[in-house]
Amino acid sequence: MADIDNIIKRLRNLPQYKKLSYEELKKIAENKQNASVNLNIESLFTDKEEIKLAKALEEKYLEEYNLETVSDKSLLRQLIYLEVYHVARLQKAANEFQSNNGAAPTQLIDSIHKNINQIVAIKEKLGLTKDKADSLQSDAFKSLKMLMKKAKVWRENNQASRTLVCAHCSKPLLLMIKTEAWEARKHPFFKDRLLGNEHLIKLYKEKKLSKRDIALVLEVSDDYIDWLIDKWNISTKEVEGADTLINSYPEGSQTEKSEDISGSGNTDKSV
């Protein structure tokens, strides 16, 4: 582990820290040293060369970026492992095959590509991808850009979600939608907070749908349909024989006469 003075010396060589005082640099150096202890990178490897490479990557990332949350540190730990795995194992194996056989196996090449994709994905989550202008930006602005990058990646992976974890503090947040932009309607698949649909049950009572059909639509078990009928106080006599009647037809030929609701005049309806 690097001592505080060595960390301060390295920080002074970075553009974003050149104007800071010794006390400010010391505080940053202490935070980075504590982060290094929390990562415990050495426990991921047994090979001395891999440990050395992992520590070098750890120092590089902790010098250039401020990772304050537990989730960020966990992701950085995964990133360092994948990068060491890529260089010390996958790439090394590919080079050996290249020297001995003239080409690496397709399976090994696929593993390298998958590992690279994982590395890129984690870097995007951490906001570690940077452009050429980053070296000219202030530390505060870099932190803001990093949060914006994390938020963008989160949005792309959570299009339909309204509950999220803050990319900065890792605390849960609830996004409130302004009601004037939406029209409130009764939910078609809930009644008294119970998952269900009255029209589906009506079709079941009329022997037009089987219990299995309704269970598949609602993505529940057949037992749940029985429970729902009982919960809604629907008489078992009303639905008795529905499954027996429907299942008596050979699979693929279940038809019955039904009222034509489309106006087309066709009275045969597949169940």
What is the domain total for the residues? 2
Choose one word for the global shape. flat
Would you list the SSEs in sequence order as H and E?
Answer: HHHHHHEEEEHHHHHEE
β-sheet strand percentage: 5-15%
How many β-strand runs? 6
Largest sheet: 2 strands, antiparallel
Number of helices: 11
Mean pLDDT: 74
Radius of gyration: 30 Å
Distance between the termini: 70 Å
Strand order, largest beta sheet: 1-2
Structural class: mainly alpha
Q: Classify the helix fraction into a percent range.
A: 55-70%
Unreliable runs: 244-271
SSE arrangement:
Layout: H1 4-12, H2 22-39, H3 48-64, H4 70-101, H5 106-126, H6 139-157, E1 163-165, E2 172-174, E3 190-191, E4 194-195, H7 198-205, H8 211-218, H9 222-231, H10 236-239, H11 242-247, E5 255-257, E6 268-270
Antiparallel strand pairs: 1-2, 3-4, 5-6
Describe the structure.
The protein is mostly helical and 271 residues long. It has 2 domains: 4-174, no CATH class; 190-261, no CATH class. It has helices at 4-12, 22-39, 48-64, 70-101, 106-126, 139-157, 198-205, 211-218, 222-231, 236-239, 242-247, and strands spanning 163-165, 172-174, 190-191, 194-195, 255-257, 268-270. It has a two-stranded antiparallel sheet with strand order 1-2. A two-stranded antiparallel sheet has the order 3-4. The longest helix has 32 residues, at 70-101. The chain starts with a helix and ends with a strand.
